[in-house]
Specification:
This protein is mainly beta. It contains 1 helix and 23 strands. A 4-stranded antiparallel beta sheet has the order 1-2-3-4, with no helix packed on it. The protein has a 4-stranded antiparallel beta sheet with strand order 5-6-7-8. A 4-stranded antiparallel beta sheet has the order 9-10-11-12. The protein starts with 12 loop residues before the first strand and ends with a strand.
Amino acid sequence: DILDVTVDDGDEIMALTTFGGQLLQFKKNSLYVIDVTSEPEFIRATHKYRGIPNGYAFAKTDFGVAFANKYGAFLYNGEIVSELSTNMVEDNWAALAGDGNELNVGFHPEYKVLFFTTGTGSDFLVYDMTARSWVKGSDDRFVSGSKSKFFVYNNQLVSAWVDTDAITFNKWQEKITSDIGTENTTLWKSKEYDFGNPSTTKFIYKVYVTYKTADSAANMEMVAYWNDGTGPEPLTLTGTLVNTSGDWNTIELVPSPKISCKTIQLQIQNISGSIPDFGTEFNDLIIIYREKSVK
């Protein structure tokens, strides 16, 4: 038996995969979902503009099949296709994807995160499928050069890259292990918070952070980049991330003077002149604020 799925449409098949009794046929411009749980098989859904540019641009996950093209990142969960790249930390998708032709997608089964990079670039985006949040990065995790499709080996996400005549295999490290030196460096930054209303003024009183260090002081500080409508200004919050010896600890960080802003972005930086504890982990972030009433 043969299932005829839109032939002679000039659209090339890029990949085939399965999930939840469905066969997913990725073409370059469209995605066809085929129900194979009974006979005869039938086309369950057709999704225009949800094709993929190459066979590297999808990954099977615990939550469904993730895939990407120049329009964004998506997930098919067995029922619907949802867009993951809506409300990203910053508008970085176009900068990473370009025309989409070199997109490469991987899934780490231990950390439940998706990785999006390109075949030759070092920039990448990470999507946490549990927290539903985005992080961007460059250079220190993925090198420039021709890379293979991601694959999982011993529960680790691995890719190979070509450097001249040599092939090197790299596995993803969740924690930064390289020495960035003692210069002041941004290690993490949040999205720009407007608390649902970018036009009103907010007073920022405190920030609570839950974290733990491996075996030393974190040597990190939190800097608030607040914007009252005239441009972002930095302010280091008062408070020290002390050594917790592997235990979770919540610290209160206070802006001095009090911040009055319309939006705010938080950054974690290493303290100038100090090397950060690369084993430090962060779990929770709470901002205490009050919105100025409009008379």
